[in-house]
């Protein structure tokens, strides 16, 4: 469940950068968004593995 909280926190951070990028034209915020999206992908993969392991252990 810790990874779900990490996902929520990361989405909040990315949202702030998205506002800076799309509404303020801040290019560095776009780079942070891309990194954050990659981090989300990695967290999603970890969550999928955890679920599979827990499901198969029963």
Please explain how this structure is put together:
- The chain is an all-alpha fold.
- It has one domain.
- The two termini are about 20 Å apart.
- The model has no long low-confidence stretch (mean pLDDT about 95).
Pick out its properties.
single chain; 58 residues; mainly alpha; 91% helix
Could you give a quick summary of the protein structure above?
With 58 residues, the protein is an all-alpha fold. Helices cover 91% and strands 0% of the residues. α1 (2-24) runs antiparallel to α2.
Helical run tally? 2
Major sheet attributes: none
Written as H for each helix and E for each strand, in order along the chain, the element string is HH
Shape: elongated
Instruction: Give the oligomeric state.
Output: single chain
**Overall pLDDT, averaged?**
96
What's the structural blueprint in terms of helices and strands?
Blueprint: H1 2-24, H2 27-56
Helix pairs in contact: 1-2
């Amino acid at each position: 469940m810790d990874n779900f909280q990490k996902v929520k926190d990361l989405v909040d951070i990315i949202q702030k950068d998205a506002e800076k990028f799309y509404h303020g034209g801040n290019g560095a915020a776009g780079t942070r968004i891309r990194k954050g999206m990659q981090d989300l992908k990695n967290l999603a993969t970890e969550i999928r593995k955890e679920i599979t392991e827990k499901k198969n252990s029963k």
